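Dear colleagues,

As part of the handover before I leave the project, I'm documenting each prediction I ran so the next person doesn't have to rerun anything. This entry is a single chain, and its sequence is reproduced below.
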Amino acid sequence: MEPVNQGNDPELDGKFLGTISQDFVIVADSLKEASYQIRKRGFSEYPIFPVCKTPQELGALLIDKSEVATQWYYYATFLDEFVQRKLMDRPEDFIEKYKDPEEFCCLFVVDPDFTNFLYIPYPEDL
């Protein structure tokens, strides 16, 4: 994988946002709880959830699409793994742009054609 930049890129939105949004309704609670546990246990203040259509090795598998009715695999990791694997040149830029993990899920979309971060707001509690 190449180093990545960050943000909600229009190309990413058009290509993936529909299927990710459909999945997100199903997985949001699990991702929000995982984000909370990563922060509560002191692993990182910057949880990241890689998502991909095929298995990969970044992070730990959290949601297997063959076991849950989703189109994507969901993994859990955090900023330090990106730095250690040299996938991020300037972590300070990431930290500056990182959105509140109580309100937003930081997804890292991994696809052969496109790789980037995407922030999706968690559904509000009813």
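The CA atoms of residues 106 and 119 lie 5 Å apart. The radius of gyration is 13 Å.

All the best with the project,
I.
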